[in-house]
Structure formats: C-alpha cells, structure tokens
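One record is kept unedited as follows:
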Amino acid sequence: MGFKCGIVGLPNVGKSTLFNALTATAAAEAANFPFCTIEPNVGRVSVPDARQDKLSKIAGSAKEVPTQLEFVDIAGLVKGASKGEGLGNQFLANIREVDAIIQVVRCFDDDNVTHVEGAIDPLRDAEIIETELMLADMESLEKRVTSLTKKARGNDKDAVAELDLVERSLALLQDGTPARKLEVSEDDEKSFRMLQLLTSKPVLYVCNVEEDAAADGNAFSAKVEEMAAAQGAGTVVISARIEEEVSQLDSEDDKQEFLEALGLSETGLARVIRAGYSLLNLITFFTCGPKETRAWTVQNGATAPEAAGVIHTDFEKGFIKAETIAYDDYIELNGEQPCKDAGKMRQEGRDYVVHDGDVLLFRFNV
C-alpha cells in the first residue's frame, strides 16, 4: 500500500536538500528493512514509532520492520506553471499522483543562495504555489462543464451529480479558496476524488530555517505558522542543512550528540515523516512474534478485514476473526499470554474498526 507525499516548492527553498536527507537516512537504514528508490526522485522512508521498539522487546522479536511512507521530490515550480512555464506540465502531472502536499517554504536569508522572486517572503511563495494549483484546477474543471451539461440535460443522474460538484468547486476556486474547503457529502466523496483536483489534497508547510533557528523557528516561520493555522494546515520547522549533515553521520550516538549540541531532541525529518503520516489520516497496527514485530499502515476507520488485506489479500478474502490486544494493555501486562490470562485479548469480527496501536493476529480460511 503506497501512500505518497509530494515535496513541492519554488526553486532554491531547500526542497531537494530535504528530499536528499530523507533518502540518505532511508539508505542508511536499509540493513534493517527493505528500502528502495523507485525512481531518482522517489524514496521510501520508515515512519518513526517508539511503540514498535517496546513491543519488540516484550515479544522477543528477532527484528523490527517499520511501516513506510513514500516521498516524491517534485520539479521546482515557478510563477506561470499552470500555463506551462518552467517545468509546469511535469510539475502538475506529478502532483496529481500524490496523496498529500508537503510545501517547503524558505524562511532563511542567505546572500549566497538567490531567491527566484528576488526577496525572502514565505507567505508570497506559498501563495504563488497555491495560486498556480488553483488556476490548473479551474482549467481542468472548465473543460468538463460543457460535456457534463449536455449529459445532465439528457437526465443522466451521474452527470447531474458530477456537474453540481464541478460547479461548486469552480465557484470556490474562483473566489480564491482551495477545493479542499468544499463541503462534500459522504455519498459524493468518491466522485470528488475522481476529479483529481490539486487543491483538494491536504497540505503541510515545512519551514526551512537557518541552523540557529532550528529549535524555535524565526520571524518568517512564525508568519507561516499563523497562515497555516488559519487554513487548518500543519507546520514543521526544520533546517534542511542540519538534516543533511545529520544524515551523513554513521552512528546513532553521533547523530544524537550532534542534535543535542544544537538544542534538538530529534531530527526535523522524523517530525516531517510523522506529520506526513498524520496528514494522510493514517494509523498503525502491529503484528508481534518471535521472528519479527512489524508495523502496518491503514486508513483511519479501516475494518479488521481491510487491515488483514494489507498483509495479504487471502487474509481479507478468508477473514474469520482478529485476535486483538490494545497497545496499552500489551505494554502494561507485558505480552500476549498475560493479556490472554487477564481477558484483555478480544475476538473481533468483520465490523471491528481498527484502532491505532492495536496488536492483531488474524484468523482466516481460504
């Protein structure tokens, strides 16, 4: 199950430095879990989760296999991308394929790194990208109106419903509001996703600051945080330069020592990965045993059979039940058998909705 976060931004904001640090970190972890770079600009990284280490120690697992997230380094955008300027067409095609947008905004001043717009203004940069995406969405929707109108006049019920979505989305965009703000009923959610609107994707702003501001941010990042809060979006403050340096250190002790010297408890990358995971509304469940403790990803709200299907399609087809232990119970009682003895292992059926941190064992018959 591949969930993709697209890293976007104007040229020279630190976007590729961040991506390179992510993939260098993943490559360094390759001995512990399967890592692959699918294309030169796509990499998979593990999602940091302290719970997995605790579960693994209790279960006596020989190894840990974290869950993963894909990051895509998308070609730098410039003003006019919606009309094909720069690598506009490539940018728009790539961003349609991701599930969420991580927008890197430059929040540092450096005379040695030129800015494509001539001056540092992260709010303007964010607006340029949002505007280009909205213009592309409007063009895409306007092309649909004529054919949908004809079908709707012929009493095509699906066309009537889709035309309503298109017209409401267009009105919102023309008012300068991204499509993700559109109120969509549960019945229309699938149709809305099929429109593949760029501005319907959730957004996380990553503020790239100078090294001295990595711990607390600066005046630029504070403005971005205020803007994001008004939009209902998230922010993470990082120094891409620090992340690059950390990713090149060999040992975990060296990395921790380097971070502590800068007043940091963990890498910005770890926070970006977790924030991206949350942005996609994902949760983690675990399978534990002597061979391995493995983390698995599902959408929040997934049922037990759907979770089983992430492991293997046969598990979902032949699902019988899920033997379920809550994470807190597993930790508090120190393992599977004590949980069984205390009546904390539950037998859950097809309608059970998986909770974040659940330890599951699936029973199935094919």
